[in-house]
Amino acid sequence: MTSDDHASFFEQLFNTNPAIKLLIDPRDGRIVDANASAVRFYGYPADVLKQLRITDINCLEPAEVLVNMAKAEACQQLFFEFKHRLASGDVRDVHVYSGPVCLEGREYLHSIIIDVTDEKRYNAQLETYNDLFHNLPVGVYRNTAEPESRFTAANPAMLRIFEAESLEALLSVRPSSMYESVDELKSFIADLERDGVVSRRPLRLRTLKGALIYTEVTALRQVAEDGSIDFSGIVEDVTARHAAEIKRDRLTHLMDASPDIVSIADGQGRVVYLNKAGRDLLGTLPDKLADALVSAHPPWVCRLIEEEGIPCAMERGYWYAETAVLGRDGEIPVSQLIVTRRGENGEIDSVATIMRDISQAKQHQAELEYHAGHDPLTGAVNRNRFLDLLVRERKRARRSGEPLSLIMFDLDHFKRINDTFGHSVGDMVLKKLVLTCRGLLREVDVLARWGGEEFMLLLPATPLLGAVNLAERLRQAIAEEPFPPVPILTSSFGVAELGPEEAEAQCYKRLDKALYRAKANGRNRVCVAEPEALSGSLPDESR
C-alpha cells in the first residue's frame, strides 16, 4: 500500500466510523481534523472545531495536556481519562484512546473519544435512589369516632408528619379535615366500619400548615365495653417514597433506554433488577447473585469478581475493571463498575453493577497498537517494536539459558527493481517477500522491516546452526518464488547468535559485516557473522 493509499484508507476509516474522532498535531495541540461524530458531540461547527486546540477542550492545565500528548506520541500511554468542555459549556467525562499515526509524511495523534458521563451519573442516581427508600418515619395515633372525631393520642412522629407545633395543636384538629379527597375519606370509613381493619391504605392528607402529603394508613376499629368506638392506627408518610417512585420510574425508563447493562442485587444476594439491555443480551438471570454471575460471565470473570471485585467493593464501596459477559457469539469485553451500599447497621444492603460494551473501543485500541508497532506496507513489525521485543526475549533467554539468534537479510539489486519496474512493483515485491518468509517461520519468530529492503529476524530458543539452516531455507524459498514481472529475485543473509551479555549494537555490526561478505562473495548466499565484531563502514552500492 502506498502512502497515498494509506492516507486515503485512514481518511475513509476516520470519517465513516461512528466513534468520536479527532486528529491532533502533537507539536502544538491544534485540531487538524474532526469527524462528523466529533462535530455533533462537541457542538461546534466543523470549521470552528478545526480552529481550536485540544487545550481549548480539555479541562486540564495546558502544560498537563502537552505532557499527556507526549506520552501518546511516544506510545508510552494510549488510554486517558479526561474532562472535555463542549461548546455549550457542559463538561463531559471522557475516555480517550490516542496514538500516533503518520499521514503524508507528518505524524499526528489519532484520538478516539468515548463519552462516559452517563455511566457516572447512573451510579450517582442509584445512590440517590437507595437513600430515598430508607429511614421513613412512622406515626402512631388514636382518635374517637364521628361525628365529633378528635385525636386522643399521637407520638412525636405524628407531630413531624403533620407539621404540628405541639401535641395540643394536633389534638385540636378533626382527622376528617385532613383529607384531600372526600371520596377517599368516605371509602376509608366505609371499609373500616365493614371490616374493622384497613391495612396500608394510600391516602392524600393535608398537614396543619396546609401541605399535601402522601401517606399509607393502617387503622383498627375498637369497641369498648361501654359500647364506645375509637380507632387506633399507624400513619406512614410516603411523600418522599411517592416522589422517589416517580424518580425511580424515570430512572428505570432511563436505564432501560441505556445501552449499558445495569443490574441490582439486594443485601441477601438476590438479583432484584436488570435493565432492558441486560435482559436483551443475557436473558432472565437466576435470582441468586452467585448463580447470576455464572450465567452472565465466563469462568475467569466469575473468579475475578468473587476473589477481587466483590471484596474490594465491600471494602472501598466500589470496584472498576475491564471484564467480559457471555453474548450469543462468545465473550463481549465490558468495562464493569460494582458499587455497594451499606445500611445504618453497616451491613451491605445493595450491590449495583453497570457494564458497558467496549468491544469497539478495544478494536480501536488494537488498531492503534498495531499501527504503532507494524510497518504499514508489509505488515512486518517495525524497528521500534522489534527493539522492544528483543529486550523482552533477551530477559527470557537469560532466565532460561536458551540461545537467541538474529538474521539480517535484504534483497539483491533492489534498486534496479525500482528503477526498472517502478516503485509499485517494488512495494509488491516487499509485501510478497514477507508473506513468503512467514510461511517458514514459527509463531514465536519475529520478522521486522529494518529499513528499506532490509529485514531482521529474531529467533528465540534458536542456536546459531538452527538460524543458519532457517536462513538457507529462506534464501532458497525467495529464489524459487516467482515475483512477476521481476524475472529473478535473490537475497543475501547474515546470521549471528547473540551472546548473553553482548551489546545489541555490537551484534548488529557483526550481522552487517556478515551480510556485506555475502554481497561481496556474489550475493544469494548465507554468511555467518564472525565471533568478534569488526569495525568499518559498508558502501551502500554493495547491496
TrEMBL record:
<feature type="domain" description="PAC">
    <location>
        <begin position="319"/>
        <end position="370"/>
    </location>
</feature>
<dbReference type="InterPro" id="IPR050469">
    <property type="entry name" value="Diguanylate_Cyclase"/>
</dbReference>
<dbReference type="InterPro" id="IPR035965">
    <property type="entry name" value="PAS-like_dom_sf"/>
</dbReference>
<dbReference type="InterPro" id="IPR029787">
    <property type="entry name" value="Nucleotide_cyclase"/>
</dbReference>
<dbReference type="Pfam" id="PF13188">
    <property type="entry name" value="PAS_8"/>
</dbReference>
<dbReference type="InterPro" id="IPR013656">
    <property type="entry name" value="PAS_4"/>
</dbReference>
<dbReference type="Pfam" id="PF13426">
    <property type="entry name" value="PAS_9"/>
</dbReference>
<dbReference type="InterPro" id="IPR043128">
    <property type="entry name" value="Rev_trsase/Diguanyl_cyclase"/>
</dbReference>
<dbReference type="Pfam" id="PF08448">
    <property type="entry name" value="PAS_4"/>
</dbReference>
<dbReference type="Pfam" id="PF00990">
    <property type="entry name" value="GGDEF"/>
</dbReference>
<feature type="domain" description="PAS">
    <location>
        <begin position="247"/>
        <end position="289"/>
    </location>
</feature>
<dbReference type="InterPro" id="IPR000014">
    <property type="entry name" value="PAS"/>
</dbReference>
<feature type="domain" description="GGDEF">
    <location>
        <begin position="402"/>
        <end position="531"/>
    </location>
</feature>
<protein>
    <recommendedName>
        <fullName>diguanylate cyclase</fullName>
        <ecNumber>2.7.7.65</ecNumber>
    </recommendedName>
</protein>
<dbReference type="InterPro" id="IPR000160">
    <property type="entry name" value="GGDEF_dom"/>
</dbReference>
<dbReference type="InterPro" id="IPR000700">
    <property type="entry name" value="PAS-assoc_C"/>
</dbReference>
